[in-house]
Amino acid sequence: MELYTDRTPEAVKNATGLHLITEATPNGKKVQIMLEELKDVYGLEWTTSLIDLETDEQKEDWFLHLNPNGRIPLLLDNTLTQPFPVMESSAELLYLSDNFDKDNVFGFDNKREHSEAVQWLFFWQASGQPNQGQNNHFSKSAPEKIPYAISRFKTETLRIYNVLELRLSGHYTAIPRQYLAGAGKGKYSIADVGTWPWVRSWKYAGFTDEEMAGFPYLLQWIARIADRPAAKELPRTPPQIQAISPLSSVNSNQFASLNDEADQTSDSPIFQPAMSFKGKKPAEETTSAWTVSLFSLIAQQREAMPT
């Protein structure tokens, strides 16, 4: 199957080396951090194309040839004989770790420690990310405020935060940790890279200082990673990104220069809900409306239940 079509942007077709197609979202941030970390250690160069989520550019045919799921980020490896697309942010972290972190600076030689890193990477991908994303959607973007949905996803996200707190505090091991995976206090790894961009946005997710006070080790972990140079390279907010649309290509140094100091707050507008009704096609609006209707029905049924 041909990867590129007549509609594929030249910035993508002509990219060399590692090329990241992304936007300013927590999932996009994961892979950006990893690429920046690899650049700092190995001098790895990479380029990026910024995609317009507001116009559903990621749903266009040229993009679906690269990722049938129509989601960003998408990593293109042009270092091979044929360009190789890698979809799903956690899979991209593993791909970069396996193929470009030759000294396992962000991974582990020990199989058990490697398994730990993968477990925590998958834990956030499968448990934390979906719940926090839906929390953001129903509390901020849904056309109808549904108390049951808001409460359900907020409660579950806080439960996930508590699991991370238990891990970092050493509650069951008596050894407080600095990072999620690795022996002793742990080592900064892809497990942390894959989790941090979401958890750091707890204010945007609507959690209060009082609620987060119950997670002191998690807050320390957030601050610890925030001090890393690669984590400070936040892209600009959506209006500033749109100024260089349509899809354009920049190298990693130029991408870093798009940063604003204001974007480094955890309630930055770059952390948009995973689902938005703005600019969506009718079919997607119908799907989202169906989801809202389902939660309305569930809420009504719960209210009707005898106490």
UniProtKB/TrEMBL annotation:
One Pfam family, short name: GST_N_2
- Start and end residues of each GST N-terminal domain: 15-104
Q: Which InterPro entries match?
A: Glutathione-S-Trfase_C-like (IPR010987), Glutathione-S-Trfase_C_sf (IPR036282), Glutathione_S-Trfase (IPR040079), Glutathione_S-Trfase_N (IPR004045), Thioredoxin-like_sf (IPR036249)
Write down the SUPFAM superfamilies for this protein, in alphabetical order: GST C-terminal domain-like (SSF47616), Thioredoxin-like (SSF52833)
**Which CDD domains does the annotation name?**
GST_N_Ure2p_like (cd03048)
Q: What is the lineage of its organism?
A: Eukaryota, Fungi, Dikarya, Ascomycota, Pezizomycotina
- Quote the protein name from its UniProt record: GST N-terminal domain-containing protein
Task: State the PROSITE patterns in the record.
Answer: GST_CTER, GST_NTER
Family, as annotated:
Belongs to the GST superfamily.
Identify the residues that the record assigns to the GST C-terminal domain, covering every copy: 110-247
Q: Which organism is it from?
A: Botrytis tulipae
